[in-house]
Amino acid sequence: MVPMPRPKRRGLAPRTIIRSDSQAGVGILPNPVKVHLSRASVVTLGRRQMRVLSPEATQTPPQAGGEVPVPQQARRLYSANVQDVIMGRFLVRGVLGTGSFGTVVRAEDKYTGTLVAIKVLHKDEDANCDAGKEVRLYRKLLAGCNRHMGLFAAVMGTGIHRGYECIIFEVCQGTLCDVISGRYDLNPLPARHVLEMSYQLVKGVEYLHSLGIVHADIKPDNIALKSCNTVTVSWLDPLTGFRKKEVLVCSEICILDLGLAVDMNNKGQTGAGRIGNRAYRAPEISFGLPWSYGIDSFAIGCVVSELYMANDLFPSTVSCDLEHLTLIDKIVGPFPEEYARSIELKCPGTFTLDPVAICFPPSGTSAPAAEHMDSMMRIEQACPLSGSILDVALHDLLRNLMHPDPSMRLTLEAASKHKYFDRLSRLELQ
Ligand SMILES: Nc1ncnc2c1ncn2[C@@H]1O[C@H](COP(=O)(O)OP(=O)(O)OP(=O)(O)O)[C@@H](O)[C@H]1O
C-alpha cells in the first residue's frame, strides 16, 4: 500500500506564537506575541516577510484507494490538479508536500516516464526572491561537482508554469519526519542506520559549510529517504522475544530545501534574525544574537537524537522561547556560567545568576500562573539526554553538537571525525 503523506509534525497551529523582528537584539520575549492566522497569512520573521500557512491550507487528508489528494485553491498558491501538465511536459501525479515557500508535486515526464518532484513556488514577490536564491544555491552546489552532491536532491531544471517559478528535483521517498513519527513502522531504527544517516547528514551539511552556506532549516521534514523499500527481519526483543520487524533496505538520505539557506560569503560570517523551526533552533537565535554555522550543528544534534529515540527531543507543545531555552538547559545544558553572564548583560532578565538558570516563568510576568502550569510540568518531566541515549560515544557527539554556547559547539568538520563514526567501515563517503 502506498503510504499517505502526513501533515508535518511541527506544522504551525492556528494560533501560532511569533516574535517580530522589532525585538531582535533585545533578547527573548517573555510574553510571546500571539497572532491569529487565517488560511494563509504573511508575517514578519527576521528581515523579511514570510508566508505562513494555517494547517487547513497545508493538510491534505488521505483518501481511500491510495490516491494523493490535491490542496484546495488558495490565494497565490499553485493549485495542483492531477493531470495538470507543468511546462508542457510534466504530468502532475500528486502532492508531496506544501511548505512556506512552495507546493511540491510528484510529476511524470510524459516523454521519458521519469518521475520527478517539482517545487512550484508560491506566487508573491517575496517568495520569488527566495526562488532565485534557492536556485542560485543549488547551482553553486552543482558547480562543485563534488561527490557529496548525492546527499542533496539533484536539481534537474527550472522553469515557469503559469507564472509560478518551478524547480525540478530528483524525487525522494518519505522524510525522516515520517520515520520518526512511526509512519513506516521502522522504529526503533537499527543502530547501524542511525549511524549511517547521521554520518551522511554531517558530511552533507559540512559540504554546504565548506561552500560558505548555512542550511538554517535542518529538521526531519527536510531530510528525505532515497528509497523506502524495506525487508522483514526477525528481531529479538529482549522483553518479548522474537518478532517480525520492517527494516529499510538502504539508509541513504538526501538533504532538501535550501529555501532558508544563507550564503555567508555575503554576510561577514554571521547571520542575524530568527530563522528555522523552534524545535531545532539553537539558543543564540532565540537570544536574538548573531549566529553562524553552529546553528546547523545544533539542529543536526536534535535530528540525530530524535532518530535514535524515535521521539521528539523538545516537545512540540513548547509555548515560548523561554520555555524552549529552559528545556535546552535541562536536556543538553547547563549553560556555562560565563556565557550566561554575557547573555544577561545583553538581554537583562534572561538568566538568574546564582545559581545560573533561565528565568522561567519570567519574573514580573503578567500571565497568570495557570498559563505556565503546563510548561512547568513539561520542564519538570524532561530528563537529561544521557537518560535516553545509552550509547556513550553517540551521547558525547550529541552533547558537543548541541553545546548551548556556540563558541564551544562542535563544527561539522570535527563532528565527522568523532569517535562515534569510527565504527563505520564501508561508507563510501569517508
Ligand atoms: N525532492 C523531493 N522528493 C520528495 N519529496 C519532496 C522533495 N522535495 C520536497 N519534498 C516534500 O515537500 C515538502 C516541502 O518541500 P520544501 O521543504 O522544499 O518546501 P518549503 O516551502 O521550502 O518548506 P518549509 O516550510 O519547510 O521551508 C518537504 O517537507 C517534503 O516532504
UniProtKB/TrEMBL annotation:
GO terms for molecular function: ATP binding; protein serine/threonine kinase activity. Transmembrane segments: none annotated. Residues 90-421 form the Protein kinase domain. Keywords: ATP-binding, Kinase, Nucleotide-binding, Serine/threonine-protein kinase, Transferase. One of its GO terms (cellular component) is nucleus. The keyword ATP-binding applies. InterPro entries: CLK_kinases (IPR051175), Kinase-like_dom_sf (IPR011009), Prot_kinase_dom (IPR000719), Protein_kinase_ATP_BS (IPR017441). SMART domains: S_TKc. It comes from the Eukaryota. PROSITE patterns: PROTEIN_KINASE_ATP, PROTEIN_KINASE_DOM. Pfam families: Pkinase. ATP binds at K119. PANTHER family: SERINE/THREONINE-PROTEIN KINASE DOA-RELATED, SERINE_THREONINE-PROTEIN KINASE DOA. This is Kinase-like protein. It comes from Lentinus brumalis. The lineage of its organism: Eukaryota, Fungi, Dikarya, Basidiomycota, Agaricomycotina.
